[in-house]
Amino acid sequence: MPQPLGNLRILVVEDEPVIALDLVDILERNGAVVLGPASNVAAARQLVSGSNVDCAVLDVNLGRESVAPLVRELSELKIPFVFMTGYDEKDMSPAWRDHPMLHKPTDPDELIDALTHILPAR
Q1: Inter-residue contact 56 to 33 (CB < 8 Å)
Q2: Which of 9, 49, 81, 82 is most solvent-facing, going by the fewest CB within 10 Å?
Q3: Distance of alpha carbon 43 from alpha carbon 47, whole angstroms
Q4: Distance between CA atoms of 88 and 101, rounded to whole angstroms?
């Protein structure tokens, strides 16, 4: 059976270890090659600079750190991404509302669907 994320390199940026491990498991079971998880912006930026990233799953807040610098970098590099957050969409930056936003905890099928929709057809 074909895997919906077959060999896509997906960056995971999440500071909660249990959620990060769950994301890695979901993505790998669907054929992705996971980069990370990164728990802070510096680690995520290092992964971006050292790899070919197809797309990313981003937590909005990493402890006390905003993911905003990484969002700018991914946007400049034209790397698509989805947000996963416990926050309400109205609390998000208006500029970020153009990207898919999943709420924690998310349904695995919802995550896979969001990722397949942000990627160009293969």
Answers
A1: no
A2: 49
A3: 6
A4: 10
Cβ distance 94 to 118 under 8 Å?
A: no
Residue 73 half-sphere exposure toward CB, CA atoms < 13 A: 16
Domain locations along the chain:
9-118
Fold classification of 9-118 is: Rossmann fold (3.40.50)
Average pLDDT over residues 11-24: 96
Please state the separation of Cα 34 from the chain's center in Å.
10
- What is the end-to-end Cα distance of the chain in Å, rounded? 17
pLDDT digits (tens, 9 = 90+) for 20-53: 999 999 999 999 999 999 999 999 999 999 889 9
Q: Closest Cα partner for 61 from 103, 10, 107, 15?
A: 15
Contact (Cβ atoms closer than 8 angstroms) between residue 81 and residue 55: yes
DSSP state for residue 107 in the 8-state scheme:
P
- Locate 59 and state its tokens: 């937590």
Q: Locate 116 and state its tokens.
A: 């397949």
